[in-house]
Amino acid sequence: MRALHTLTLRIILIGALWMCLSGLLPSISAQTHLDVDPDTLPNLRPVGGFVRVFFYFLAGALLLLVGVLTALRYRVGTTLYKAATDAHWTADAIADTGERVDVTEVLGACEAIEHTGEPAQVAEPMPKTESPQQQGRLFTPASGVAWSESMLKAFLGTCMKVNCLARTWRESAARQVQSSNLADPREAELIRRLMQRWQEFHVDPDVGVFLEHATPAGKSRVCVISVTKDKHTLTEAAFNAGFVIESVGRYLRNTDLVYARSPGDYHAPTKDELLTMTPGEKDCLIRLTDVPDPWQAMIGRPEKPQ
Q1: pTM over 0.90
Q2: Last residue of a domain, one of 32, 64, 95
Q3: Which carries the bigger pLDDT value, residue 98 or residue 153?
Q4: Are 284 and 217 in the same domain?
Q5: pLDDT tens digits, one per residue of 82-101
Q6: Does residue 248 lie in a domain region?
Q7: Cβ neighbourhood burial of 85 (10 Å; 0-12, 13-18, 19+)
Q8: Does residue 112 belong to any structural domain of this protein?
Q9: Contact 15, 66 (CB under 8 A)
Q10: The sheet that has 257-262: what strands, in order across it?
């Protein structure tokens, strides 16, 4: 702004100088020539008029330039003023915000001090809702009521305890490890397959578990687990030989031996029973995989009274 004012002042001074020269130079030139040669005065009139017009034109151009610079000065001055004003108000707003924050902090601190003596309100805990996964899975058979996971495992575990073949598996597991609580791989696999296919079974807890099995002659209903109860206690359980072979065939061993008590009914002797068997009885032992017509044979069914 200061440089613009200096430039305008200089232009005004130069314009005024040119206007003075436009009036003085022709007179001086004419007076000089008049002193030298009075006869040449008429010849200088055209020259003086041209010089006067030239200087007037130059002075007018300078004045026009002064007007443009003056207008520009006011325009620039207004913008600079506005910018200075905006900056001023921005600084004031920032300072005012800082003051408000300080006041808010002070008020908050005062309120905290006032409520220090009041007992804190403890939020009431939300009521616990048990998810379906915590309650356990449900196993719904093809016919019959749904079984919870714990109930189904307990039922199958009891069947294993009272079955002769499963007892031989548990004895084998007890000999291999110090703890007999660890299930034999054959027992664990049979339970897993029963639970996996539970939705295919027709279940009657007092009679047993049945399955629609496909045969070359068509579908037939076979008994997969046959149970015998004394009041509410499970005393005997027999497994279908075909289902056992199909489920745990890759885990079966050469020691999985059975003998026929009656047509279609087989018994798996324990180690103690093998020691008391006669040579003739031992000759009747066959491997489980060699049972004829296994899907119609049951292992562990109690011997029928004579």
Answers
A1: no
A2: 95
A3: 153
A4: yes
A5: 444 555 545 555 555 554 54
A6: yes
A7: exposed
A8: no
A9: yes
A10: 201-204, 208-215, 218-230, 233-240, 298-299, 265-267, 257-262, 286-287
